[in-house]
Amino acid sequence: MRSFLFVPGDSTRKYESAKKTAADALILDLEDSIAPDQKVVARGITRQMLDARNPEQKLYIRVNALDTDLTLGDLAAVMPGKPDGIVLPKCAGAADVNRLALYLDAFEAASDIAQGTTRIVTVATETARAVLKILDFENMSPRLWGMMWGAEDLAASLGATRNRSDGRYHSPFILARDLCLIGAAAAGVVAIDTIATDINDLDALKAEAVAARQDGFLAKAVIHPKHVDVVNAAFMPTDEEIAWSERVIAAFANNPSGVARMDGKMLDKPHLRAAEKILASRRK
């Protein structure tokens, strides 16, 4: 999984366009992109989208946050369509993940879905409290599959007038990004980089995506179909990385000691794990 393309849950036109892209997953949105008086209508449209899916793409639903009193209604509408996962906004730690997991237990049983198969992806940095809870995943549900960070809602939570200057995030938002990456690694789940907001600056998007992959993110969220191919390419290992990884694995192949030498340098198990990860990333 490299790219998660957001699609408004009330736009069949945008959904049909998104289905034609190479996005690994679509996030059908019932939250920010839907006006308050259109929430119920969007649920029905999103349910129809689930029935008309592209089998090559995963489908996730971003529900409304747990404190809105809309979450259960969202789940009741979409779970019969068997989405691959639920994206939980404004998530503040294990308690929120586990609460959603309990809801999913019930809805899976009601919809004849195999127990535990619906994944959870959290948007983990949208409020100051959520940032402080990023590392609070010690007793989380095994449904948690990924953690995404975002800077737009966090700016409002902090009272910031802007989150970046000259294309670079300000320090509070870099902290949120780094904590999301570290928190995901500690929890053993996928770290997902935030969207690029400038739709037309594809060079900046590429640089942002490459930097995210190099830092350890395994996927990136996008908001426009033309961002998908750029992100997919950026999250594929380079020929140089693949060649290095193959040589590292070969160096360990006949060496039971746990260390190896290559190009006059000592290699140990972390190098082997890194090489295996790079080669595995060639697949979705």
Automatic annotation (TrEMBL):
<keyword id="KW-0460">Magnesium</keyword>
<keyword id="KW-0479">Metal-binding</keyword>
<dbReference type="InterPro" id="IPR040442">
    <property type="entry name" value="Pyrv_kinase-like_dom_sf"/>
</dbReference>
<dbReference type="InterPro" id="IPR011206">
    <property type="entry name" value="Citrate_lyase_beta/mcl1/mcl2"/>
</dbReference>
<dbReference type="Pfam" id="PF03328">
    <property type="entry name" value="HpcH_HpaI"/>
</dbReference>
<dbReference type="InterPro" id="IPR015813">
    <property type="entry name" value="Pyrv/PenolPyrv_kinase-like_dom"/>
</dbReference>
<dbReference type="InterPro" id="IPR005000">
    <property type="entry name" value="Aldolase/citrate-lyase_domain"/>
</dbReference>
<dbReference type="GO" id="GO:0016829">
    <property type="term" value="F:lyase activity"/>
</dbReference>
<feature type="domain" description="HpcH/HpaI aldolase/citrate lyase">
    <location>
        <begin position="2"/>
        <end position="225"/>
    </location>
</feature>
<keyword id="KW-0456">Lyase</keyword>
<comment type="similarity">
    <text>Belongs to the HpcH/HpaI aldolase family.</text>
</comment>
<protein>
    <submittedName>
        <fullName>CoA ester lyase</fullName>
    </submittedName>
</protein>
